[in-house]
Design a protein that fits this description.
Elements (H helix, E strand, L loop, with lengths): L2 H11 L4 E5 L2 E4 H17 L7 E5 L4 H12 L3 E4 L6 H11 L3 E5 L3 H8 L6 E5 L7 H9 L14 E3 H7 L17 E7 L7 E6 H12 L12 E4 L6 H5 L10 E4 L5 H11 L3 E4 L1 H8 L14 E4 L6 H11 L3 E7 L4 E5 L10 E5 L3 E6 L13 E7 L10 H7 E4 L2 E12 L4 E7 L3 E4 L2 E4 H9 L4 E11 L3 E10 L8 H11 L8 E4 L13 H13 L1
Parallel strand pairs: 1-11, 3-4, 3-5, 5-6, 6-7, 10-11, 10-12, 12-13, 13-14, 25-26
Antiparallel strand pairs: 1-2, 8-9, 14-15, 15-16, 16-21, 17-18, 18-20, 19-20, 20-21, 22-23, 24-25
Helix pairs in contact: 1-2, 2-3, 2-7, 4-5, 11-12
């Protein structure tokens, strides 16, 4: 069975129920299915064939969901990416994935134009963020200038999302004939890590369906899956937003989405539509607690507050329990594991700091990072994860694949590169990271990618980038830079501006410190751990 087939059955069963709420407008399952069918027909007539990659370069919206479902219905492979990627990242992903078609917002069409000149993209579908809203809301948005606008030049290869849907309004085709194998590729999600460029993670229909169903039903002892109304504050291009939010469309629940996080809009939506679940990263929960107008809203409908993407500080959990009388329950996962490896059960009092217990579809072991031998209960070690139908490679990256996916005792395991511990009851705890990855606002950021960009500056001889612990965002990004000889007049601001030309906003360093030299091993390897230890001593002093 494939993802769209499951959605289709659910949509037929829940036809008149709300599937999606976008900026206060409800879309029923019948309406969403109709839009997906029309868009799928458009894609098929544009020449999209089973297996072809289609990039989704759009913020959270009804259009994103319609596009994702439409691509899957046509047998294509969705390639969702963050809508704030620069032309540098977009160009790389277009070439790495082999995508020839892209669906973008009018606000990032300019970036797409830059990439069209030199990469394999051949077809562009452009949407405006208010396209599928009622006419009155659209007019309000234009009159009061609250809808972001971007300039678009249409031609035979650049089409309007809205007009494509209108063209096929009265067209009803049968579902395209293609082999609906559960092992077929459904999507490619790009994730950060230790390499300069993001790595493409291929996810099959069967793996997604297994993981998504498991994660979306974790709260069923609180309310049924069909009664669930989820305030989805996680991006849909991220595995968290997909398996813990988007997945509700496969079981009959309701998903609320916003193009970007606005706390007052989030509070208002929870109150108006009676959200039962909210998804967020630790930084978001801290912002909520510190919001000056929090007490003006009634958020009591939410029974399941879920946090992932990074470790929730214990003090935030305590403050939340005191303020709302309900806990924030954590989970741990990765793109490579199709989301949740562990989740906190809703039926027990989870110990402070726990990121949950291993979910049924996954196997896990904690081992010595060097010897790969199991450690004793309670001792820290690297977490390895295995599952049926698991991801076992990165797209076009054999070296990274060999390092991350290993065979032990006749099974394939994914090396998370995270140091974890597990108590006698099976509760999992995060301890540290073994690789040079920075967790900033729930994103995994590659230190080496930022270092490479800095070292391309004509004044820079070498650079070292580390994460500095921060209560608000997990880790702040700090760069240590050594200039070439006789360089004068270049400031930290100049280097940050340089990074902004290439890096997406959440990867740009917040701090720059200049050094005469950087610590290196005898064979010339950069010793980031010494820098991190130095920063830790500074903080403790």
């Amino acid at each position: 069975m494939d993802i769209y087939a499951v959605f289709e059955k659910t949509a037929d069963r829940r036809a008149n129920h709300s599937a999606l709420i976008y900026l206060g407008t409800r879309f029923t399952y019948r309406e969403l299915k109709n839009l997906a069918e029309r868009f799928s027909t458009a894609l098929t007539e544009m020449g999209i064939e089973p297996g072809q990659r289609v990039i989704l370069y759009v913020p959270n919206s009804i259009q994103w969901v319609v596009a994702w479902l439409g691509v899957l219905r046509a047998g294509g492979v969705a390639v969702p990416i963050t809508p704030i990627y620069t032309p540098h990242d977009l160009s790389y992903i277009a070439e790495d994935s082999g995508a020839e078609t892209i669906i973008c917002a009018d606000t990032n069409f300019g970036y797409v134009q830059q990439v069209l000149k030199r990469k394999p993209l051949k077809q562009v579908i452009v949407t405006r963020m208010a396209d599928l809203l009622p006419r009155g809301k659209q007019l309000f948005g234009w009159l009061f200038d609250v809808v972001p606008k971007g300039k678009v030049s249409f031609d035979p290869h650049t089409m309007s999302f809205h007009k494509l849907l209108a063209r096929y309004r009265n067209r009803s085709d049968g579902r395209p004939v293609w082999e609906r194998d559960g092992n077929a590729l459904a999507e490619i999600l790009y994730t950060g890590g230790t390499t300069r460029f993001p790595k493409g993670v291929p996810i099959s229909h069967r793996l997604f369906l297994t993981s998504a169903d498991e994660q979306i039903r974790i709260s069923e002892s609180l309310f049924s899956a069909e009664e669930n109304v989820i305030m989805g504050n996680a991006p849909l291009f991220h595995i968290l937003g997909q398996t813990c939010g988007l997945a509700t469309l496969l079981v009959g629940g309701t998903l609320m989405v916003q193009p970007r996080i606005n706390l007052d809009a989030t509070f208002d939506s929870i109150q108006r539509f009676g959200a039962r679940t909210m998804i967020g990263v630790p930084a978001l929960y801290r912002l909520i607690l510190e919001h000056s107008r929090l007490d003006q809203y009634d958020l009591s409908s939410v029974d399941y507050w879920f946090c992932a993407g990074d470790v929730l500080p214990i003090e935030i959990g305590k403050r939340w329990q005191e303020s709302f009388g309900k806990p924030i329950l954590q989970g741990y996962g990765a793109t490579e594991t199709c989301g949740g490896v562990s989740m906190c059960p809703v039926t027990i009092d989870n110990p402070p700091g726990s990121v949950g217990r291993i979910v049924p579809s996954k196997s896990a072991k904690i081992v010595d990072p060097v010897l790969l031998a199991p450690v004793k209960t309670g001792e820290p070690g690297e977490l390895l994860v295995s599952s049926t139908n698991m991801v076992n490679r990165y797209i076009n990256k054999p070296e990274e694949t060999a390092a991350a996916f290993i065979e032990l005792e006749g099974k394939m395991w994914y090396r998370t590169a995270d140091i974890m511990s597990m108590d006698a009851d099976g509760n999992l705890y995060f301890v540290d990271r073994t690789v040079d990855t920075i967790k900033h606002k729930g994103y995994r950021v590659s230190a080496s990618e930022i270092e490479s960009v800095l070292q391309e500056h004509p004044a820079v001889m070498s650079a070292c980038v580390v994460g500095i612990p921060d209560e608000r965002v997990g880790e702040r990004i700090k760069a240590y830079v050594v200039f070439k000889q006789d360089i004068k007049g270049v400031t930290g601001y100049d280097l940050i501006k340089w990074c902004r030309q290439t890096l997406v906003a959440y990867k740009v360093p917040q701090y720059i410190e200049f050094r005469d030299m950087l610590p290196k091993s005898k064979v010339g390897k950069l010793l980031r751990r010494e820098i991190r230890d130095e920063e830790r001593r500074r903080k403790e002093a």
